[in-house]
Specification:
CATH superfamily of the largest domain: FAD/NAD(P)-binding domain
Distance between the termini: 49 Å
Strand content: 15-25%
Structural class: alpha/beta
Oligomer: single chain
Length: about 575
């Protein structure tokens, strides 16, 4: 992290902000609230300076009916309320650091002009990745209101089939909204699963929801070429595609920074200090183009989130105005709705921790979103990842139908506060039967973490099962006979927990891997066996987690004539 240049003691006369939306407009409006007289100029290359970019897929899907509903503030409104000089269709093409000017070019007329600044804020965001695939020029991307309008126009022509390239957050939102418009949708994802930020046993639950709504899911597949009405995969399969949407990620827009000789970080974003100053102290940078401190690794990384950009814009305004300002490490908290399922994540995934070689423990639970005796309770799948020594929370993932957002937010807040995993058990969370249980799902994760950290419970990860069986461990299913008959781990012995004491002679001295449906009965049985001198470990998350882990190895797909 670069050293911070002291804040100014008086607001500079002219502040020029390149790019609007979250970071740029947050900086502009905050600056105005701190000084009524400063000359604040916002230069935006598109036709919209403040819009709800996270709402774009829902405009394409028809849930948001009017394009105007996406606009949060027009240039005229920004002037009337804040006396901001907002200039749309004005693209900055060069920065003269020595002369403290930027050169703009009208995207409508091509006319160029110079604009002087005392302080400059770069908020250019990120641009969709467009790989060198033959025919990719006809692929639609979704980043601006103009992009959404073009896509909505395409959808209005009533295409029969669409292919979405990329199964990240935007790709899945686009798939849902295209299905909503009556279009046959196929998702193509290069990695082995949808939603790569999630671990496989959670992501498969999202894949199930896609398939249940008729979406064809092609994971571990890459596109080799795009024809006039087809998409050809690298393995030769040909998919019908009247419409193709690219959602394979974004890269930081650092073109201006590079031209101006500003330093970039190890991930390719603009390098900034704690005050968001670049290597030129008179130039700040915020938003998706900037490298941000990561709360888990404490290194910098690229995190493209609107709330992070908003926060950076505010902090930059404070620093320019001479107020105390500080950087906050980002947790990467994110959430997405996929039809009737919600998936959320915070921090790092197990896959990412393994790749980094960082020690961790992971636990799974399958709690209901509220008391089961109150109508409408639904299960969620939750995963908590923490340091095995000190309990530091490293990440969490939740997939469910209701209550996912508030649980991931509680865990994100706990991480920000430096709470350890076991301390989640002590949180006093709001409870009434329609909203939660006396032991909230977050509390349950805390109790489970407490058991693991204290050594009271030794859990088995699903991927360990085969190895333990080879070593001679017995698989003991303590569910009911009916549950066992409906589906069980191959080779397991079924002894229902309520009759376990009567059949201890069949277990010998172990070792035993105990499992139930979600892990709770398994924990009780494991504790009993320990007390009786039998070596036993509990399968983390029970049969539900194991079956999800197993299915994730061969995710389902909807058959089609061209598959």
């Amino acid at each position: 992290m670069m050293a911070e240049t002291p804040a100014t003691t008086q607001l500079p006369k002219t502040i020029v902000i390149v790019g609007g939306v979250a970071g740029g407009m947050s900086a502009a409006t905050r600056l105005r609230r701190l000084d009524a007289d400063a000359n604040i100029i916002v230069l935006e290359r598109s036709g919209h300076v403040s819009f709800a970019n996270c709402g774009l897929p829902y405009f394409v899907g028809g849930l948001i009916e009017e394009e105007e509903d996406l606009t949060l503030q027009t240039p005229e409104q920004a002037f009337d309320r804040f006396r901001l000089d907002v200039r749309v269709h004005d693209e900055v093409v060069a920065i003269d650091r020595a002369g403290h000017t930027v050169t703009t070019r009208s995207t409508l007329t091509g006319e160029e002009a110079d604009v002087a600044y005392d302080k400059l804020v770069l908020s250019m965001g990120a641009a969709p990745v467009r790989p060198p695939i033959p025919g990719y020029d006809r692929v639609r991307t979704l980043r601006t209101v103009e992009d959404a309008a073009r896509l909505a126009s395409d959808v209005g022509i009533a295409p029969a089939a669409a292919v979405v390239i990329g199964a990240g957050f935007i790709g899945l939102e686009m798939a849902e909204n295209l299905v909503r418009q009556g279009i046959d949708v196929t998702i193509v994802e290069a990695t082995p699963q949808v939603l790569p930020p999630l671990d496989a046993e959670l992501a498969i639950l999202v894949c199930d929801e896609l398939v249940a709504h008729g979406v064809r899911v092609k994971t571990g597949a890459t596109v080799s070429s795009i024809g006039e009405r087809t998409v050809t995969l690298a393995d030769g399969r040909v998919l019908a595609a009247d419409l193709v949407v690219g959602a394979i990620g974004v890269r930081p827009d650092v073109r201006l920074a590079e031209l101006a000789g500003l330093e970039l970080g190890p991930s390719g974003g603009i390098a900034v200090n704690e005050a968001s100053q670049t290597t030129d102290p008179d130039i700040y940078a915020v938003g998706d183009a900037v490298e941000k401190p990561d709360a888990v690794s404490h290194a910098t990384s690229l995190i493209a989130l609107a709330n992070v950009a908003n926060r950076q814009g505010r902090r930059v305004a404070d620093h320019i105005a001479g107020r105390p300002s500080h950087a906050v490490a980002s947790l990467g908290t994110a959430i997405v709705k996929v039809f009737d399922v919600v998936a959320a994540t915070v921090g790092w995934s197990e896959r990412r921790l393994r790749a980094a070689g960082r020690p961790f423990r992971a636990i799974h639970s399958h709690p209901f979103d509220h008391a089961t005796y109150y109508p409408g309770a639904t299960r969620m799948a939750a995963k908590l990842i923490f340091d095995p020594d000190d309990g530091t929370i490293l990440g969490a993932q939740i997939v469910g139908r209701n209550g996912v957002d508030k649980r991931i937010d509680v865990i994100a807040t706990a991480m920000s506060a430096g709470m350890t995993a076991d301390r989640l058990a002590d949180l006093e969370l709001a409870y009434a039967p329609p909203f939660s249980s006396a032991k909230d799902p977050v509390n349950l994760l805390g109790y489970m973490a407490e058991n693991v950290l204290s050594g009271d419970c030794d859990v088995v990860d699903p991927h360990e099962i085969d190895s333990l069986v080879e070593q001679g461990w017995m698989l003991l299913d303590v569910r009911t006979r009916e549950e066992h008959a409906a589906g069980a781990i191959t080779g397991s012995v079924n002894v229902p927990i309520d009759s376990l004491r009567d059949h201890l002679d069949t277990l010998g001295k172990g070792p035993v891997v105990v499992y139930c449906e979600v892990g709770q009965r398994g924990h009780t049985a494991t504790a009993l066996l320990h007390e009786l001198g039998i070596k036993a470990r509990n399968l983390d998350g029970g049969y539900q987690t194991w079956s999800a882990f197993l299915r994730a190895q061969t995710p389902p797909t909807v058959a089609s004539p061209t598959s």
